[in-house]
Amino acid sequence: MAIPESWRYTPVRDKSPYLPDWQNRPHTIEQIEAPGYGLLLGPISGGVVALDFDGAEAIDHFEQNLMPIEALPTTVMWTSGKPQRFQAAFWVDEDAWPLLRTFKTGPDRKLEFRWAGGQSVLPPSPHPETGNYEWLLDPEQVEVAELPYSVLEWWVAQSTPRSVPVEPAQAPRTVSEEEVAALLADLKRHYPTLGYDEWMRVSFAVCKHLGKQRAIDLMRSHYPETKAGEYSKLLWSNYSIGPSPGLGSVVHMIRQQDPTYRDHPEKKLKSAFATLRRAKR
User: Fold this and answer.
1) Which helix (H) or strand (E) segment is 251 a member of?
2) Collapsing DSSP states into helix, strand and coil, what is residue 13?
3) Which of 13, 129, 222, 239 has the fewest CB atoms within 10 Å around its CB?
4) Among residues of the chain, what percentage have pLDDT more than 90?
5) Which of 208, 106, 108, 194 is CA-nearest to residue 150?
């Protein structure tokens, strides 16, 4: 493994690019002579996003709205050396590229989705306060992972003007309980048991389409509770419809085991991307 060949860079000093029009002047790593270099983000580097966590507030916001940090796939990560500050690189589905923008969110906007037009300084570039940036997981150890679809869906929604209907996002609500039950039966065949993060993701997806009580009854019939009241505690206390994954996340899980798995009545994510692109024209 090594740094992806598609990545392009710009020279930096004190964390900042200094070339005129640097966003449109990509360099290969061999062309960088300055001691510091920044990764150009977005399509110019093959569709890479940097998730920038600027402290504990950013981590908490991500976990409250999306998923536990531990549930993210293993990927390339680095840090400035400051406590609880790090960045993680992910590949983004090409169909989503036109729909995305750099986006800051959370308390003091400390969680950032860094995208086209931006850059992130990579190790071992100098840092004015800590000495140098350092790898947490470097490209010699791990590959860059794909951004989870549930995170991508949420980011697309945040990047879309409110006047544009984000959902084919509401379309999944027409899926019947029988169709959801059939999907869960298919999931059960591929995943006889679910880890905690998978169980939470599937429960939230079913709840998003059927409501809390129907979701609890249906999930119990396919994945019985190990402790009484687990579903009630999860869905009544922690569920939030806005950022929760849809049934497409369940389909994606099955396709990880069976790439030929049939389409589900819920509109696929790529169809949603196409609809949003037409709306933005």
Assistant:
1) helix 247-257
2) strand
3) 129
4) 47
5) 208
